[in-house]
Amino acid sequence: MKQNAAQPASPAALALFGLRLTALVVIFLGGVILTQVAQIGSGAGFIVVGPRVFPTIVGVGILLLGVLFFLRVTAKPDQDLISEVTAEEAATDWTTILLTSLSLVVYASLLKPLGYALATGLFFPVVSRIFGSQRLRRDVFIGITLGLVIYLSFTRILGVRLPAGLLAGIL
Q1: Total structural domains in the chain?
Q2: Confidence (pTM)
Q3: Rg (the chain; Cα; Å)
């Protein structure tokens, strides 16, 4: 039976489309990893295991899993998987997912100008509110505390540089 253009697709068809799209994204990411491995320098001197070995293994693994997943949802679609995805789709709160994704993009764009500690201090209460928290003061305190503790731990103890931003002279 052919579907009419005005008739919406069934939830099972949408789930199958989503699964196939996910498999293609995984294949794409595996390909991106493998193409980026070529950008890694070989290092000085002789080393048994070069810097490209593990990223290559990860890239090949992700690519292979993506192809296997695509075959699983294309060649002989798994009806149990489709029904599980359909049920999950019905229970998903897309507003929360979209707002959280948007806040991650804003957080990433504020990391350099504000610095890790301040950006994290702002990000935590925003996401807490998206997830339903009503205690703004507590969330701001936790966000700033986490941002400062993680920043100081990484920069002072581990020697990993995180952006200081506006607090460059203070931290």
Answers
A1: 2
A2: 0.62
A3: 22
